[in-house]
Amino acid sequence: MKNYVIIGNGAAAVGAIEGIRSADRDSRITVISREACHVYARPLISYLLEGKTDLKRMLYRPEDFYEKNRAEVLYGKSAVKIDPEKRTVTLDSGEEIGYDALLCAAGSTPFVPPFEGLDGVKNVHPFMTLSDAQALEKDLAPDKKVFIIGAGLIGLKCAEGILERVGSVTVCDLAPRVLSSILDEECAALMEERLKEHGVKFLLGDTVERFEGQKAIMKSGKTVDFDILVTAVGVRPNISLVKDAGGECGRGISVDEKMRTTLPGVFAAGDCAESFDITSQTKKVMAIMPLAYMQGHCAGVNMAGGGETLDSCMPFNSIGFFGLHCMSAGSYEGECYEEKGEGTIKRLYVKDGRLIGFMLIGRNERAGIYTALIRNRTPLSEIDFETLKKTPGLAPMGKNYRTEKLGGAV
Amino acid sequence: MKRVYVNEKWCLGCHLCEYNCAFANSGDTDMVRALKGKKIVPNIVVEEAGDINFAVSCRHCKDPICVKSCISGALSIEDGAVKIDKEKCVGCLTCVLVCPYGCIREGENGAATKCELCLENSCGEPACVKGCPNRAIVYEDRG
Fold first, then answer.
1. What are the pLDDT digits (tens) for B20-63?
2. Rounded distance, CA A334 to CA A383, Å?
3. Is the dihedral of CA A111, A60, B68, A396 positive or negative?
4. Which chain B residues are Cβ-neighbours of A289 within 8 angstroms?
5. The pLDDT value given to residue A69
6. Is the domain A331-407 a CATH 3.30.390 member?
7. Please, which residues bridge with residue B45 across strands?
């Protein structure tokens, strides 16, 4: 019997619980959950405000999940220290928990730049957690003007989620375009246009110089009057527990392809970890929910003595705004194949004979076939890429591929 | 477990499976009323490439990346079959972005749609298999 301890209760923790239980049915699992609630789908908080989901439907796993997996959750508790010598975790309550294998899946924390005058602003909300969304919801009213700092995924999903419930929504970003971390200028322009058509206002390439009460004075000299301020500038990985214990960290907690940190018996996964991106060939924090789950699962299997490796990580995102979808994956380097239609863009990036990235706006059909080419590092010389680049399909993958993948259980 | 397979030598490319699929999942009892004049989004799609045709639908993978990637918890495995809870799905289409076989699509009501082997509708057995005029699509246990 072993003692497994998981710090965090998000997608990576769920992955770890399922990973551990695939290899070890009996040992004890303890989950330390800062939030005092059952695991929910965090990116769905904007859909909650939009009325497209509710508290019950947005549970990431069924209500009996912990019970069925015999995981004990310590709700409303935080880990404050890891002692890798004694193999213990200290909680904020002072309690110490021993572990044989530990997963740090502590996530990330919203980062708010020290804007001048921010202290004097009322109704300021981050937009990361369910309680953030619920607190914001209390302030929403049809006559309210909302100002969102940050035109990334979080800021824009927030804008979409609340638009119909408030008087106006203005979004600013230091970057000259929306979704600057995942899209280039032209793709971003299409997304921006769709959001604008629905009434979202933008101040891009501009940032807050200072606040004077409920008024923002921008670098450009423009001013924004608002009732509610949402801060969605970015997040910082929660690395301190592992870092303070002597574990190697970059921007995130450094892990190998088995999700091991440099501390014996300590693993990390999800938004707090940095792992190898096969498309850029660099170590980076890839804070996306599917990877959090997969990393957590990999960590869980290995915590239980199994041998899972995860060596195909890359950033990828699929998100829609008012019916227009953008999908992206990998890195945007090398030779670009491009198709443009009315309100749609396809860009595929080929480097060293392999597909390494793409952006698709309004073109989501069968996109996973492209993603798989990147993930599997398929040499394009082995397939009919000339056909495939125009229309994703399995015919251009060749007869052998089809016999193997479509002819038997995979 | 039984899955849907296609013998590409026998597939005529007639697309009947697409219509049978859309009808079976429409909830309607009349095929004409269910499909006429509507843009259908079947969970099986026929690919045509030169002299070969073949229908593709969800492989019900043993280690499905769509389930691992689902951000809402709407996709799950039930007795080996990959199921979608359309009430939970918010239509982010992350599953579409990761499915290596291109077998999950954007459905009509914002949610993603995929083959559930007709276990969730009144057809009882896969409608694509039942209606295939050349018996190219089969429902078999191949492991």
1. 999 999 989 999 999 999 999 999 999 998 889 999 999 999 99
2. 19
3. negative
4. 69, 71, 94
5. 98
6. yes
7. B56
Q: Which two tokens stand for residue A270?
A: 């999800």
- Percentage of the residues of chain A whose pLDDT score is greater than 90: 100
What per-residue confidence (pLDDT) applies to B51? 87
pLDDT score of B124 more than 90: no
Tally of domains in chain B = 2
How many beta carbons lie within 10 A of that of residue A154, not counting itself? 23
Q: Which residue has the tokens 């052998």?
A: A400
| pLDDT at position B108 | 84
Q: A3-109+235-303 adopts what CATH topology?
A: FAD/NAD(P)-binding domain (3.50.50)
| pTM: predicted TM-score of the whole model, two decimal places | 0.97
Q: Which residue of B has its CA nearest to A396?
A: B49
- Find out whether A332 and A359 touch, Cβ atoms under 8 Å: yes
Is residue B74 classed exposed, middle or buried when 0-12, 13-18 and 19+ CB atoms within 10 A define those classes?
Answer: buried
What are the backbone dihedrals phi and psi of residue A83, each rounded to the nearest 5 degrees, phi first? -110, 100
Q: In chain A, which stretches have pLDDT less than 70?
A: none
A130 in contact with B, Cβ within 8 Å? no
Same domain (yes/no): B30, B67: no
Residue B132 has pLDDT above 90, yes or no: yes
Length reported for chain A: 410
Strands (E) located in chain B: 2-6, 44-49, 52-57, 75-78, 81-84, 105-106, 112-113, 137-141
pLDDT tens track for A46-59: 999 999 999 999 99
Both tokens of A194, joined, read 């769709």
CB–CB contact B98 A371 (8 Å): yes
What pLDDT shows up at residue A226? 98
Q: Is the CA virtual torsion B54, A367, A321, B120 positive or negative? A: positive
Give how far A289 is from chain B: nearest CA, Å.
6
**Pair (B14, B32) in one structural domain:** yes
Q: Do A368 and B62 lie within an 8 Å CB cutoff?
A: no
Which of B90, B107, B106 is CA-nearest to residue A53? B90
**Residues A91, A77: contact at Cβ < 8 Å?**
yes
How many helices (H) and strands (E) in chain B? 5, 8
What pLDDT is stored for residue B123 in this prediction?
A: 81
For β-strands A335-341 and A344-351, DSSP reports them as antiparallel
| pLDDT of B122 | 79
Chain A residues closer than 8 Å to B142 by CB: 407-409
Backbone φ/ψ region at A265: left (φ over 0), alpha (ψ -120 to 50), beta: left
- Please, are residues A155 and A172 in contact by the beta-carbon 8 Å criterion? no
Q: What angle do CA A46, A322, A375 make, to 5 degrees?
A: 80
CB A236 within 8 A of CB A246: no
- Determine the Cα–Cα distance for residues A118 and A335; give it in Å rounded to an integer: 45
Alpha helices, H only, A140-184 = 153-162
> Judging by beta carbons within 10 Å of its beta carbon (0-12, 13-18, 19+), is residue B37 exposed, middle or buried?
exposed
Question: Exposure pattern of A209-235 as b/e (b: 16+ CB <10 Å)?
Answer: bebeebebbeeeeeebebbbbbbbbbb
- CATH code of residue B29: 3.30.70.20
